[in-house]
Design brief:
The complex is a heterodimer of chains A (167) and B (112). Chain A has 167 residues and is mainly alpha-helical. Chain A contains 6 helices and no strands. Chain B has one domain: Helix Hairpins. Classes of the chains: A mainly alpha (167), B mainly alpha (112).
């Protein structure tokens, strides 16, 4: 069991435990902080797969911008003191049963598919995740979607300002 | 690493997000669980991209192998997620201003 396997299992366990803490925390601020831990673990997975550009973008965009936005909204609305009223235990039970059924179906499909039997994801090697190759692909083959996404950002910004404006 | 490990890990993360969406009532936490599901799919796309890069060619033919498309898709998913979060949080703030709550059981006024 090499160092790669140890890092893989450690990051997986960290991400799963933090994800469970996200959905079980009472305080929304604690949920945000646990979700940041999940994003750091997923960035560690990206680095392990040698997708360096996506690892840094994941940290900057998710842990840096989106989570700060969530934290800002929670603290702006002063929700951290308010506790969620306790609801029916059977609804939680039914939700857990539904999620477990989806997980069971997905796992059984993966286990019964012969195409995935001997596929291996290349860890700590390969150069398709480097900034140079992704940049070349992004500005030659995917130049039009890249520009369209800037229009999407502009419309999202205008939409957020119009929705949030006090009339 | 075998690709089944990545599929199992990402499926588990996705299902934790599904359970969170189904069981919580705070709209912001439901939104965060949606982000969790998006990240599980992103990780699986990157893992499939690396598996495809191994299986198609041992030689370094980057642009023609199609393995780089998975990582480009992850980049665009992040772009769309950022736009979605900004608009969605603006909607939640507007709802909180009207209803003074983010509990989704109080937000069913469109129903009748």
């Amino acid at each position: 069991m090499g160092i790669t396997q140890i890092i893989f299992w450690f990051l997986s366990a960290l991400a799963l435990l933090s994800a469970i803490m996200v959905i079980t925390s009472k305080n929304p601020v604690h949920s945000v902080l646990w979700l940041i831990v999940v994003f750091f673990a997923i960035s560690g997975h990206y680095i392990l797969l040698n997708a360096q550009f996506l690892a840094i973008v994941n940290l900057i965009v998710y842990a840096g911008a989106i989570m700060v936005l969530f934290l800002f909204v929670i603290m702006l609305m002063n929700l951290n003191a308010e506790t969620e009223p306790q609801k029916n235990i059977w609804m939680k039970f039914a939700g857990a049963i539904s999620g477990g059924s989806i997980l069971l179906i997905l796992i059984s499909v993966v286990r019964s598919s012969p195409e995935l039997r001997d596929k291996v994801a290349q860890v700590k090697g390969g150069d398709i995740g480097l900034i140079k190759n992704l940049g070349i692909a992004l500005f030659t083959d995917y130049a039009v979607p890249f520009e369209i996404s800037s229009v999407l950002f502009l419309s999202a910004m205008v939409g957020a300002v119009v929705i949030g404006k006090k009339e | 690493m075998p690709i089944e490990y990545y599929i199992t890990f990402a499926s588990t993360l996705f299902c934790i997000g599904v359970v969170g969406v189904l069981t919580r009532r705070n709209a912001i936490i439901i939104f965060m669980c949606v982000e969790l599901m998006l990240n599980a799919v992103n990780l699986l796309l990157v893992a499939f991209s690396k598996a495809h890069a191994v299986s198609v060619n041992g030689a370094q033919q980057i642009s023609s192998s199609g393995a780089i498309d998975g990582q480009i898709f992850v980049f665009f998913i992040m772009v769309v997620a950022a736009a979605e979060v900004s608009v969605g949080l603006a909607i939640i703030v507007m709802m909180y201003r009207n209803v003074h709550s983010v509990d989704i059981n109080f937000l069913n006024r469109l129903k009748n």
